[in-house]
Design goal:
Blueprint lengths: L15 E2 L2 E2 L44 H17 L6 E2 L12 E8 L5 E9 L7 E3 L10 E4 L3 H5 L16 E4 L8 H13 L8 E4 L13 E4 H10 L3 H13 L3 H10 L6 E2 L15 E2 L2 H9 L9 E2 L5 E2 L6 H11 L40 E2 L2 E2 L13 E10 L2 E10 L7 E8 L5 E2 L14 H18 L1
Parallel strand pairs: 7-8
Antiparallel strand pairs: 1-2, 3-20, 4-5, 4-19, 5-6, 9-10, 11-12, 13-14, 15-16, 17-18, 18-19
Helix pairs in contact: 1-9, 3-5, 3-6, 4-5, 4-8
Length: 472
């Protein structure tokens, strides 16, 4: 199969254009025509998938309710398809997208103790315009997918790119994984946690960030803060300077290569941080920063206190939450619980407004709400409307991380029902190439870079699905 190599390019601004961060770009081409029939992938034993040839074996993981996962997979595919993600327009010109957007959505259902019991993964693309339900292995992975690098130009041209992981055999499904945007900061947090557990850094240690270059998005911004401050800024309001500081720290203390190796050894093979610059922590690129929804959902499990074996590595070793110390787990998850950018799968920062549509019905952390006006304000970003009246309507805590650039919109986190609310407990992750280049209509959000509300309606539908799943 002919593949077009994706050229890695540095991100040097605030939003992505092509493979780099620059200004806006108009899309070429017309909206795809009629949508073909639903694609499907045949299931073979032991959780692998393949239309022909030998199955891809996987070491047996924890007990999974395969019937429940299959049901969840069918329902998730229908939900993703129902959002009509191709019904968006170029935010500036009103032109339709040149191809069906790429969406990678995954959910892992958890029991009351936080143990995974079922999972689903759906892919939407021009190859699967109605979505395809990806069979999930006993280890909560998707071994039947050939994941490839993202390229805006190749997506628009209906082409193909190089694989994230060289495959030893052909796989029944192929999917160009969207750029993860700032959700990649979950991997940086994991790396800092592992470095702390090895004694390479302390969360209360002061780190003096002195970049020697200016490749970090936002430029050269030196500063001196405790590592916990840098981590909070990176995770709660997605500060790029804080992320570059922590990446530079990882480079200085030999933590980047071990982080990539540990993720790979855990079986989270699509999660990688490559090509970043040790001189300032910048150098972010499509080629170097890769994630997929199901692997990201599993990474989030490592930030919980779930008991027992979560899954097994490719070599059969058990993976538990003890991969990180209790201190590191709680430090990271505590920051995710304080998320300020509730504007993708959840739109709680706009609670009570007519637009955008409501998403996962989360509680907005009080630190971001002005006590006199009820308006949400996060690091200089202000949302309209008084959210205090919505506090009683909140149903869940959503410990999550969002990501938004011009050509990518993503959100991933852990959902837990609030006391007295209908029970549900799950991990959700969604990646898409629907960044702020594409909007629900021209002029949406006053032209400010925001997400399509289709991610919110997807989040709300997934939340309803998980309530239904719990009652089965």
């Amino acid at each position: 199969m002919r593949r077009t190599t994706v050229v890695a390019a540095l991100l040097v601004g605030a939003v992505l254009f092509g493979s780099v961060v620059t200004g806006c770009q108009d899309d070429a081409g017309a909206r795809p025509g009629s949508r073909p029939a639903v694609a499907s992938a045949p299931v073979v034993p032991d959780g692998s998938v393949g239309p022909s040839g030998p199955a891809v074996p996987e070491t047996t993981g924890p007990a999974q309710d395969s019937e429940r996962s299959a049901w969840l997979g069918r329902r998730l595919r229908r939900i993703v398809d129902a959002q009509r993600f191709d019904d968006v327009v170029n935010a500036k010109t009103g032109a339709p997208p040149p191809a069906v957007p790429n969406v990678d959505a995954a959910v892992i259902e958890l029991d009351d103790a936080g143990r995974p019991v079922a999972a689903a993964n759906t892919l939407l693309s021009q190859d699967y315009p109605h979505g395809v339900a990806v069979p999930v292995s006993q280890n909560w992975s998707a071994p039947g997918v050939d994941w490839t690098h993202w390229s805006n130009d190749v997506w628009a041209a209906h082409g193909r790119t190089d694989p994230l992981i060289p495959a030893r055999a052909s796989k029944p499904l192929e999917f160009m994984a969207p750029y993860p945007a700032s959700v990649f900061k979950l991997m940086v947090a994991f790396g800092i946690g592992r470095l702390a557990d090895r004694g390479g850094v302390r969360f209360d240690e002061t780190y003096d960030y002195r970049p020697r270059k200016a490749t970090c998005p936002g430029g050269r911004q030196p500063g001196t803060h405790e590592v916990s401050w840098w981590l909070d800024a990176m995770l709660t309001y997605s500060d790029n300077g804080a992320t570059c500081a922590l990446l530079m720290l990882l480079h200085e203390r030999g933590g980047v290569t071990p982080t990539n190796a540990e993720l790979r050894d855990l079986g989270l093979t699509t999660l990688q941080i490559r090509g970043t610059d040790g001189a300032d922590g910048g150098g972010w690129s499509f080629e170097g920063l890769t994630m997929t929804a199901l692997d990201t959902a599993r990474l989030l499990l490592l930030f919980t206190d779930a008991p027992g074996i979560l899954w097994r590595t490719p070599t059969g070793e058990p993976v538990t939450t003890r991969t990180l110390s209790r201190s590191s787990r709680h430090t990271i998850r505590g920051r995710l619980a304080e998320q300020g950018l509730n504007q993708a799968l959840s739109t709680a920062n706009w609670c009570g407004q007519s637009y955008p549509a409501p998403g996962i019905p989360q509680r907005v952390p009080s630190r971001w709400i002005d006590t006199s006006t009820g308006i949400v304000s996060v690091a200089g970003r202000v949302w309209s409307g008084d959210v205090r009246g919505c506090a009683g309507d909140a149903q869940v805590e959503f410990d999550h991380k969002t990501g938004l650039v011009e050509s990518a919109g993503a959100d991933a986190g852990i959902v837990t029902a609030l006391p007295g609310r209908r029970p549900r407990h799950y991990v959700v992750a969604v990646f898409s190439n629907l960044g702020c280049r594409y909007a629900d209509h021209v002029g949406a959000h006053g032209g400010v870079c925001r997400y399509t509300e289709k991610l919110a309606t997807l989040g709300a539908a997934i939340d309803r699905l998980m309530i239904e799943a719990r009652s089965r």
